[in-house]
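Holo prediction. Input below; ligand is nickel (II) ion.
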Amino acid sequence: MFIDTHCHLSKEDYDDIDKVIIEDKEADVDKIVVSGCSREAIDEVMSFKDKYDMVYVTIGYHPEYADSVRKEDLDYLKSLLAKKKIVGIGEIGLDYHYTKENKDKQIWLFEEQLKIAENFNLPVVIHSRDATQDTINTLKKYKVKGIIHCFSGSLETANIYISMGFLLGIGGVVTFKNSKLKDVVKELSLESIVLETDSPYLTPVPFRGKINSSKYLEFIANFIADIKNISVDELAEITSRNASSLFDFNR
Ligand code: NI
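Structure of the complex:
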């Protein structure tokens, strides 16, 4: 049984959500942790968690909304956190890929949400793109645990995050031909890894070009199991255990 620790689910991307859920289950996926990271997406994923057993959610504002999120939006986020099946805050973080002109606002939004995570004792799902050093420095200021989602950095960076108590979310990128991530994953302890698809994005080989979904998790898992020279069942067991020790699925 697999757990997809990070994906997105929206009617904008999938015509038939019922079908997506059925296919995920058929592909031996037990739970999916769906991230709602805009005001609209938060409301949508909240409805999915109530409708589908296998859906758990993390909610929080993605750094791409740093210019538009207001205090009211943060209050709204807080007002939801006592509800069932909300297992974390995310994805939150820093993204300097397209712009770092609003760096201060991004850091403000990130820190506000780290404070919320700390206060509510919830894990965080971190998005960090071209912003490793600021992400590390910011995270060090708070007592939070969580996942570095879509990790694709160096072994050195991996070890810093691991020493801070974070898990690394490994997804489709590891299967990409030109990615160096497989060499890094090879060196990592299995206890530090969780699986994710980040669907509808980052579809693994051999389905690149198609829309991603949690049903492809087994292809990511097979790839990693090969690298680590263990059976896919063993990999599923260890990574699911890692995910379950971070996220409280009884909430
Ligand atoms: Ni994502």
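The chain has one domain: 2-246. That is the main takeaway for now.
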